[in-house]
Amino acid sequence: MATYDIEADGLRGLNAALQQLAGTTPNEPWEVVNPRGSHAIAVGLDAPLDVTIKGSTGYYCAGMNKQATIRVAGSVGPGVAENMMSGTVIVEGDASQYAGATGHGGLLVIKGNASSRCGISMKGIDIVVHGNIGHMSAFMAQAGNLVVCGDAGEALGDSLYEARLFVRGSVKSLGADCVEKEMRPEHLELLADLLERGGCDARPEEFRRYGSARKLYHFNIDNAY
Amino acid sequence: MTDHDPRIPRTAPIQSATFSNPINAEIRRAAATGIYDIRGGGAKRRVPHFDDLLFLGASVSRYPLEGYREACGTNVTLGTRFAKNPIELDIPITIAGMSFGALSGPAKEALGRGATLAGTSTTTGDGGMTPEERGHSAKLVYQYLPSRYGMNPDDLRRADAIEVVVGQGAKPGGGGMLLGQKIDDRVAEMRTLPKGIDQRSACRHPDWTGPDDLEIKILELREITGWRVPIYVKIGATRPYFDVALAVKAGADVVVIDGMQGGTAATQDVFIEHVGIPTLACIRPAVKALQDLGLHREVQLVVSGGIRTGADVAKALALGADAVSIGTAAMVALGDNDPKYEAEYNALGTTAGAYDDWHEGNDPAGITTQNPELAARLDPVEGGRRLRNYLNVMTLEAQTIARACGHNHLHHLEPEDLCALTMEAAAMAQVPLAGTDWYPGKPGTGY
Fold first, then answer.
1. How is chain B split among helix, strand and coil, in percent rounded to 5?
2. Contact check, Cβ <8 Å, A83/B33
3. Hey, what domains does chain B have and what are their CATH numbers?
4. Residues of B with CB below 8 A from A40's CB?
5. Is the Cβ of B372 closer than 8 Å to some Cβ of chain A?
6. Which of B192, B208, B213 to mutate: most A Cβ within 10 Å?
7. What is the pTM assigned to this prediction?
8. What is the ipTM of this complex?
9. Domains (ranges, CATH) in chain A?
10. What does the alpha-carbon distance between residue B138 and residue B121 come to, in Å, rounded to a whole number?
11. Residue A225 has pLDDT above 60, yes or no
12. Contact A83/B153, CB-based, under 8 Å?
């Protein structure tokens, strides 16, 4: 195992070392110690790396990840795994705002709670939150799946496009153009897979599905809020 | 009703300046449809502009350079503050961000070809980077927009610079639109959206708010790109002094400021005409912010919004800009609003020069469309040649003025080379009213 001490050796050295492995198939896992809330840890990776961050991070941890599996043994600041393309990011603690923002692919698992705007503008990423999520989550979410094992805050899925939202607990309120939809067998099958990959023991039947009413898709007098 | 006595003169019919024909037409249109007017382009109203400034030229107190023989440099380097690889341009005129989606594929290719031939950069737009524009643009600036449509780290690393778009002059505080007529299969796939919907872009970034967050976002972008490429921050002109200062504080290498005459592919007319300030009004406050921070010329300033001629270029540079950027003018150079399509413009209910329904995708010139038949009207090779010619002419014009003022580089132009024709322009540009040594607000004058 390769160990990197951010406090001693700096952020640039870590990201440069991890980014240099793009195009390779590394065997050695990496452990990052003393993150102490640093921003932009393990960003822009493009290899099937296995990285564990021992502690809590600041903004944009694992931003724009491709292929890598990044575990955070702590909590994360805003924008974890923002614009992720592929790979897996697992947060053992809680996540601040904008978790998984604009993500195009891959899997983001948050074992604690996620704050507001979780999954904002998501474009294909799968997000599994074991706890609750804050207000305005999945705002303008375009594609992908957001699974919430706890409760959702106000205005869930406001101005939603084609992303699918699954919530087990309560939803404080739905945002504009977001509606509850029928949970069909194909959704139960999809959800079962997401729960398994996200390490949740919840049953798909306990969830409700939400999606777009598609009434905001065209400008006209009746869709002005 | 009595017959009019022909011996009594009639009262002349007077159109109201307040309720003018265009205003009344808009009231009737709004009453009929219930939806605001959407159009492309920038502000059409008359605002103080570069036309209201004049160069003083050399005379007894200063001597000119020989117009055709003595050198006058035009090159500029953008991104010298932090980036390992600043952008070196032959001319200080760049091509502004315009998206594939808003523009056709051939139009984007033509922009890349023309800019490359002229030795300058072009810029992507909302919707991501296409292989065509990367392939034909020797220097390509990748816009990082609130929508993040098509945004991916591979393109980020392929870019020669990154432009974090906070706003644009046509709609500061607003997001973009791309109506369903232009969302074909390819555009829909690039943006991860259903085909044919009216797409609305976010007005602010999804994962940061405010200058402190922006500083961290810029750090992330630098870490992903290895600190190699410059980071621009583009702002719509509203509070230029503070916005420029905050962009610099956040770590920008280059600040792009876009006045209200700057165009957009589509937004509400009320936004275009009533939000933001003129280009002329934003340059001096932006320069002062850089000067107050001791970073004028170290953080480069790019000005856009209504740049049309070499004279406009020279005036923007004289006021302190390092470069300018053009969008609408580049489209006109390619053939937008060309009178040769007058019959087709008439069929669309408009006339050459006034066509601005770019969002509808019916552009007779084949530029603002995704209709394959219309798009095929623009030959990208010929379009690139026309844009190269136009950029060359603007550069020659700016050099002509600079030499006349006694300068051997465009960047040596200075406010002292200028005077103003109107009080408004004098106040905004902070140069004297022609024939005087005074401008409104001049320090020490008391008024």
1. 35, 15, 45
2. no
3. 40-429 (3.20.20.70)
4. 216, 219-220, 223
5. no
6. B192
7. 0.95
8. 0.96
9. 2-223 (2.160.20.60)
10. 7
11. no
12. yes
